[in-house]
Amino acid sequence: MNAVLFVFLRCLFALPLLALLARLLGYLLVREQLKKNNKKQNRKVENPEILVPYTASDIRTALQLGILGVTGNLMANAGGILLTQSPFKVSLFQQLQPIVTTSISAFTGRENVNPFTRSGALKWGWIFVAISGAFLVIAKPGSFTWSTTPNNAPYAVVGDILLLVNVLSYSLYLTFAQPHLSRIPPITLTAWTYMGGMLPNIICLVLAYMLNGAALFHIPRIALVGVMYSSILSSSLAYILINWCNHKTSPPIVTAFVPLQTVIAALLSAWVFGSEIHVSEGVGAVVVCMGVCGLVWTRYRESIGRDEVMEGRDGVVPSVGATNGASENEPLLTRYDT
């Protein structure tokens, strides 16, 4: 099945499901408001759920998130995997995700990842520990197939560019989506993302049809199972959870779990297909878990220090650790809101 058609159908089937979930959430939120108002039906209740972007600002937001989160992320990833034909290179680009996202968050001031502070240095350190463990998992014998055949070399270069676009798009999507999550629930923002991504996806589908002709729409019956699986779990459930975690934490924390995907994939491959687990994979899995747990613990300690500082501003004398934590919560580049 063509990769562009697969992504298009995946997003097409996921959109009505996300819209239905967003509508259901809006109904539940309105009912909760009615309960808080002692079930007085005569009182006006504002619907806190915005199902469809109707203002110019909301439409721009949906298009921006759709281009980054759907077309730039899913389409570029599928095209990169198809053209690169190197599992090692695909895994390598995926491990760049936490570094790129953390760098963007540092320069936009959305997360304390300043390497000259204790908290920022620990975050960078734990991220590199997790990435190192992921490389141990993928660095098994026969995995370093970096070279390509001469006939595939031009396509491999395009595939590398698409994989890089995939990494940048996903990082920018998480960064730009986080401010909107304060007013838009994760389910609704995910639906907006797929609404905004439909038009760019249609353009990609037209271009694919111009290159492949009618053969583009050849769909094996078994492929429909993969489309439905991706629509329900990967496109709907996974994106909702990602946006929810992005709202509760930050983009660097969300992408810090990317190396853990490599570990889970190796374990599932051994369980389902009976693949052999090498010593380097076992050691790498432990190292990845150490890096992820260390990063989460650092973020947790940082949040405790921030709460103590806020209590000190309200009249409670902060502890010495909280005073030190205040200087660590400064971003790499200070952002001023006008």
List key phrases describing it.
single chain, 74% helix, mainly alpha, 12 helices, 338 residues
What's the structural blueprint in terms of helices and strands?
Layout: H1 3-36, H2 56-84, H3 87-95, H4 97-108, H5 118-138, H6 153-177, H7 186-212, H8 221-248, H9 251-255, H10 258-272, H11 279-313, H12 320-328
Strand content: under 5%
> Major beta sheet, specifics?
none
Number of helices: 12
Structural class: mainly alpha
Tell me the quaternary state: single chain
Helix content: over 70%
Radius of gyration: 22 Å
Helix and strand element order: HHHHHHHHHHHH
Coarse shape? globular
Low-pLDDT ranges: 42-48, 144-149, 315-338
What does this structure look like?
The structure is a single chain. Helix content is 74%, strand content 0%. It has 338 residues and is mainly α. The radius of gyration is 22 Å and the shape is globular. The termini are far apart.
Quick take:
It is built from twelve helices and no strands.
